[in-house]
Amino acid sequence: MVQPGPGNVKKTDEEWRALLTPEQYRVTREHGTERPFTGPFLDNKKIGTYKCVCCGRPLFRSDTKFDSGCGWPSYFAPIDEHAIAEYVDRSHFMVRTEIRCADCDAHLGHVFPDGPPPTGLRYCLNGTAMTFEED
């Protein structure tokens, strides 16, 4: 498990609210979840980089994206081992591994041990927590 980093991007609650849409704020700052099959990037097939919507940190490359059928964009590996931080999430009567942006602490989604090779991991992301930059 990658341990949380110090985070380089710090903003007040008011600054985050001014920067983000209400849905982006709810997902990233309040640890919300978008409804399955409704978020952006689920069906995106373009080549490029997925970045944190809050701070722009590169998170995932399109060549690690796969269709998991779960209703959210899924990836088998982050862009590098320092891009995300992992936390134990005991909400909703389960124990899961939450993933956040290592730079700004934005809630991104969760990681599960049921992904494809080569990692066997499924990073399940809220599309509203990301932007996409095409190559």
From TrEMBL:
Entry binding sites for Zn(2+): 52, 55, 101, 104
Keyword set, alphabetical order: Metal-binding, Oxidoreductase, Zinc
EC number of the protein: 1.8.4.12
Active site, UniProt feature: 124 (nucleophile)
Keyword Endoplasmic reticulum: no
Superkingdom as given in the UniProt entry: Bacteria
Listed InterPro entries: Met_Sox_Rdtase_MsrB (IPR028427), Met_Sox_Rdtase_MsrB_dom (IPR002579), Mss4-like_sf (IPR011057)
UniProt-listed Pfam families: SelR
Gene Ontology molecular function terms on file: peptide-methionine (R)-S-oxide reductase activity
Note describing how the cofactor binds: Binds 1 zinc ion per subunit. The zinc ion is important for the structural integrity of the protein.
Domain MsrB: from-to ranges: 13-135
Metal-binding in keyword set: yes
Cofactor(s) this protein cannot do without: Zn(2+)
Catalytic activity: L-methionyl-[protein] + [thioredoxin]-disulfide + H2O = L-methionyl-(R)-S-oxide-[protein] + [thioredoxin]-dithiol
SUPFAM superfamilies: Mss4-like
PANTHER family: METHIONINE SULFOXIDE REDUCTASE, METHIONINE-R-SULFOXIDE REDUCTASE B1
Family (UniProt): Belongs to the MsrB Met sulfoxide reductase family.
Protein name, as recorded: Peptide methionine sulfoxide reductase MsrB
Annotated source species: Sinorhizobium kostiense
